[in-house]
Amino acid sequence: QVQVVESGGGVVQAGGSLRLSCTASRSFDGIGFVGWYRQAPGKQREMVAFIIENGATNYSNSVKGRFTISRDNAKNTVYLQMNRLKAEDTAVYYCYVQVGGGYWGQGTQVTVSE
């Protein structure tokens, strides 16, 4: 069993920045995939960004160039730096850790006001 906890959400004006954190109860060493997803009201959950074991990253087209995913193995934490936020980024953001059957966090709300 792995506990996954997201933090860092909040309310920010359009154009602002937030940094989300995803902390796991075990080391990320040997974990092949950690991803950030989001779900806006009335919409399906969508992938935002992910990072794999060798450090390679991938982003959805909607956030490419604005968001950066990174990993700090010493802190068992994956970050999502979100810059130039837009109203359409408003959603609950979830972290997914691919180990065993996979584990989701409880989510953190991001609200971007215009």
List its salient traits.
four-stranded antiparallel β-sheet; seven-stranded mixed β-sheet; globular; single chain; 114 residues; mainly beta
Structure in words:
It is a single chain. By secondary structure, the protein is mainly β. Helices cover 0% and strands 53% of the residues. It is built from no helices and 11 strands. The strands form 2 sheets. Strands 2, 4, 5, 6, 9, 10 and 11 form a 7-stranded mixed beta sheet that branches.
Helix count, DSSP H or I runs of 4 or more residues: 0
Number of β-strand runs: 11
Share of helix, binned: under 10%
Largest sheet: 7 strands, mixed
Shape: globular
Strand content: over 45%
Oligomer: single chain
* Head-to-tail CA distance between termini: 40 Å
Helix-strand sequence: EEEEEEEEEEE
Q: What is the mean pLDDT?
A: 96
| SSE-based structural type | mainly beta
Cα-based radius of gyration, to the nearest Å: 13 Å
Q: Residue ranges: pLDDT <50 for 5 or more in a row? A: none
Quick take:
The chain is built from no helices and 11 strands. The strands form 2 sheets. Strands 2, 4, 5, 6, 9, 10 and 11 form a 7-stranded mixed sheet that branches. The radius of gyration is 13 Å and the shape is globular.
